[in-house]
Amino acid sequence: MVKFLSLTTSKRLADRKIARFERNISKKGSENTKKGYAYPVGPIVLGFFIFVVVGSSLFQIIRTASSRGML
């Protein structure tokens, strides 16, 4: 009799999982897609990154030009 009750509970849990899976599958194709372009980083971080990259490249160009005697 205990085995019969555990099978019923197992069947109920399995049915619940199947129902949840089917809801997720039906949602998958109808997700709203964002229109527009969102950056993965904020504008301040992006500005800082550009500042560092451009600044370091300019610093390297100036250092190279001054060490070679301005060829």
TrEMBL record:
Quick check: keyword Iron in the entry? no
| Family annotation (InterPro entries) | ER_stress-assoc (IPR010580)
Its cellular-component GO annotations read: endoplasmic reticulum membrane
TM stretches of this protein: 37-62
Offer one example of a GO biological process linked to this entry: endoplasmic reticulum unfolded protein response
Localization per Swiss-Prot or TrEMBL? Endoplasmic reticulum membrane
Q: What is this protein called?
A: Stress-associated endoplasmic reticulum protein 2-like
Q: Which organism is it from?
A: Sphenostylis stenocarpa
